[in-house]
From TrEMBL:
Residues 79-88 have a biased composition (Polar residues). Gene3D superfamilies: Ribonuclease H-like superfamily/Ribonuclease H, Ribonuclease H1, N-terminal domain. Keywords: Endonuclease, Hydrolase, Magnesium, Metal-binding, Nuclease. Residues 63-89, 257-298 are annotated as: Disordered. This is Ribonuclease H. Its cofactor is Mg(2+). One of its GO terms (molecular function) is metal ion binding. It comes from Apatococcus lobatus.
Length: 298
């Protein structure tokens, strides 16, 4: 039977950032060195989506062979429960964790702006801090930095083993775009938005809530620390000890209007057609129906 030709879709079910990628190099960055990754290539996007969203089928864990770099050499079956739901870090998957995220850019209107993002993961109830991020983002815009805080916070929480998350941020734009209420029309946000939606599929339970800035002071302080050039790469605990194999610098490849993730594991948030009778909202905030998988609390 002749081999199929055409573009390939690389589906990562278990890896640093689950999603569908348009090249092996992008896929490899998510699975290389990751403990028990699950990924596979397909010739159609539909097949790739089915592979990621499958929950009642054995997970195919592909191991890369050094002799055939770029190809998978063997597969082994895993239990029925998807590996994306298995604990992979020091956090208790039975507990709920709170994620506070923020981002900002000084001199936002200038190309010489300095941006940074921050995220803090704490145990719900005790408020015990279990992980934090402060990453300098260079010339990111303010909105890109806000997105980066959410994306890295979610990915870090998943990497550390959290399966239940309550996320809080003071950016209405990020909360409502990720929740599906507002459209994403700015090219520089599309890749970050896709990556945020993909991260949502990693959790058993997740909510996203907008809060006033005064209730987001810890994440704001981390973002300012990053803008001051005093941040770090990776995620650290309260004592500054690096946790897990998680590199926050991967976000720097995502905000240049070239999405890393081609599509999200769940049904994509397609833009809604604006009614000609209604005036479009300014600030990239047109409304569309929120996906059922993402709960947004006002």
């Amino acid at each position: 039977m002749p081999r199929k030709k055409g573009p390939k879709y690389y589906a990562v079910r278990v890896g640093r950032v689950p999603g569908i990628y348009d090249s092996w190099e992008k896929c490899k960055r998510q699975v290389d060195g990751y403990s028990k990754p699950a990924f596979k290539s397909f010739f159609s996007q539909a097949e790739a989506e089915d592979f990621i969203s499958a929950s009642n089928q054995p997970v195919q864990v592909a191991a890369e062979s050094t002799a055939t770099k770029g190809k998978t050499s063997k597969t082994t079956s895993a239990p029925n429960k998807t590996a994306a739901q298995q604990p992979s870090g020091p956090l208790d998957p039975a507990l709920t964790y709170c994620l506070e995220f923020d981002g900002g850019a000084r001199d936002n209107a200038s190309t010489s702006r300095l941006a940074g993002c921050g995220a803090l993961i704490a145990e719900q109830g005790s408020d015990a801090e279990v992980g934090k991020i402060a990453l300098h983002l260079g010339s990111y815009t303010n909105n890109q930095a806000e997105y980066a805080g959410l994306v890295l916070g979610l990915e870090a929480a998943h990497c550390l083993g959290a399966r239940k998350i309550k996320a809080f941020g003071d950016s209405k734009l990020v909360v409502n775009q990720v929740g599906g209420k507002w459209q994403v029309k700015e090219p520089g946000l599309m890749g970050l938005h896709a990556r945020a939606v993909a991260a949502y599929g990693c959790f058993e339970s997740i909510t996203l809530q907008h809060v006033l800035r005064e209730f987001n002071k810890r994440a704001d302080a981390l973002a300012n620390l990053a803008m001051d050039g005093k941040g770090w790469t990776g995620v650290v605990d309260a004592q500054g000890k690096r946790l897990a194999d998680f590199d926050t610098r991967s976000i720097l490849e995502t905000a240049d209007a070239r999405p890393v993730v081609v599509d999200a594991p769940k049904r994509p948030l397609g833009p809604a057609k604006a009614s000609p009778r209604k005036r479009q909202r300014t600030g990239d905030r047109s409304r569309t129906s929120p996906p059922s998988a993402i709960r947004v609390q006002e």
